[in-house]
Prior knowledge:
The complex is a heterodimer. By secondary structure, chain A is mainly α. Chain A has helices spanning 5-13, 35-54, 64-85, 87-110, 123-145, 147-151, 161-206, 212-249; strands at 18-19, 27-28. The model of chain A has no long low-confidence stretch (mean pLDDT 88). Chain B has helices at residues 5-11, 14-36, 41-64. The interface between A and B is medium-sized, with 19 and 21 residues.
Amino acid sequence: MVFDFQNHIVHHMQNSYYWQLPFLPPVALPAPLTLHALMVIFAFFFLLILFCFFYKKNLPVPTGITNLLEAVVVFVRDDIAITSLGEKDGRRMTPLFCTFFFFILTLNVLGLIPLFATATSNVNVTGALAMVTFSFMVFGAIYKNGFKAFLRVLVPSGVPFPVLFLVVPLEFMGLFIRTFALMIRLFANMLGGHITIAVLIGLGVLFFGVITVPVVALVLMIYLIEVLIAFIQAYVFTLLSAMIIGQTYHPDH
Amino acid sequence: MNKKQLPNLTDLSLGLNVAAGFFVFTLIGYFIDQKRGEGHLGILLGMAIGLAYGGYEIWKLIRRQ
């Protein structure tokens, strides 16, 4: 049997209406549901169960999973939300950033488990997450400060008046571009890592023999780096969201 | 992590912001050309504005430092 290298890589990356399971025929998913959408639903239920049943809020001294989750929540609150938005707004926005962090982390890690897929390697998923950030960046800032104050975001201080005709449109487009960059960063990082792994495994299968052993070792190393990247990308998305929301919430700083 | 370290982390995103700006403006120029149905003025203007946006992002970073 000839190994179809290209199809192997493309199939591993792309969204599908089938869920491939070993030794079983592909499971057809109900019509509007795709594999990545299924992973999003898995992540939703996983987080729901984790925080509803395993997180014990009333413990006098948090232990086990409660302790672990609290440490992460406190980190997101103190080092991301409050640092970017200040004490009052930071505390108010912490649930959003915690949701971002845990949701992206779960989706990233879910993709590293065999048989599951990485929903964050789908640009629609990262685009939807970036749109939430954009909504808070624009509509949240208008709601908080009013429309007039929001316009101050587009006018940087200390710039001569004639230059403003060039700078204001660029700042306006910058709102969209930063959101776009946020979307692409997460998508490209997750997709890139998986392509690397898929290509190397494909090479190992294609040139099956002595070369397979070092290739598998290399894949294992990249896989471990992918675990690190899953955490880093969840952190980076949350941090940059907090920073760009903070810039529109407090345009003077 | 203190407040001073945060801007340094976000400055790392400069590269992608510049690239995304160039891409978005060029894409807008491309669509304008498609709509007009002739010439390449839109795409060239889009690239120029994209480069200007990249320069502006770098200028903002230098100003912050």
